[in-house]
Design a protein that fits this description.
alpha/beta, 7-stranded mixed β-sheet
């Protein structure tokens, strides 16, 4: 059976498609949670060619494709000494089918050797994201067990950050997307 998705590190020629994905998916996802203006501000600040291009060039963005179209994006970065999953977004028709954990697995595989934990950041009002990260932290699935065995020793755990607003991270950190 053919793979449903191709999960891979984003390349320079993906930047425009990743930005278009953000414009389409993020705005629609967040408008009901934080309002149209704030959702538009998220896209305009964190899904620009400059922001996405810099993160892609640094090897921080993972994409999922289906039939040649980007249907999922994950972006990691740093906040001080912590490795942080800032973005994890899926096209609505690909949610609930196992793609989110596949993207998280790909992010974990790209963490530097010896990384002890991966933090996550999401809006406090995004209950769906909070529930996903909690399930992933405590899941007994083979994928989650393997991630815990080979990846960071703390997944989500005590370093999980939940943001209620759209504040800017410290200078020098990767741009958040607030999944």
């Amino acid at each position: 059976m053919a793979e449903r998705w191709l999960v891979r590190e984003a390349a320079d020629d993906d930047v425009a498609a990743v930005c278009a994905f953000g414009d389409r998916v993020v705005r629609a996802h967040y408008a009901p949670l934080i309002g149209d203006r704030a959702a538009t501000a998220q896209v305009e600040q964190w899904w620009t060619p400059q922001q996405i291009g810099g993160a892609v060039a640094a090897g921080l963005v993972t994409v999922a494709e289906h039939d040649g179209e980007i249907v999922g994006v994950a972006q990691r970065g740093r906040h001080g000494d912590d490795h942080v999953l800032y973005k994890l977004y899926l096209d609505a028709q690909h949610r609930g089918a196992g793609l989110g954990p596949r993207l998280v697995d790909a992010v974990v595989r790209h963490l530097p050797a010896g990384t002890r934990r991966l933090c996550v950041e999401h809006f406090a009002g995004n209950a769906r994201a909070g529930a996903f990260y909690e399930r992933e932290r405590s899941s007994s699935s083979a994928s989650s067990r393997a991630r815990r065995a080979s990846g960071p020793s703390t997944w989500c755990g005590g370093c999980c950050r939940s943001t209620a607003d759209a504040t800017t991270p410290d200078a020098g950190t990767a741009p958040p997307g607030r999944s």
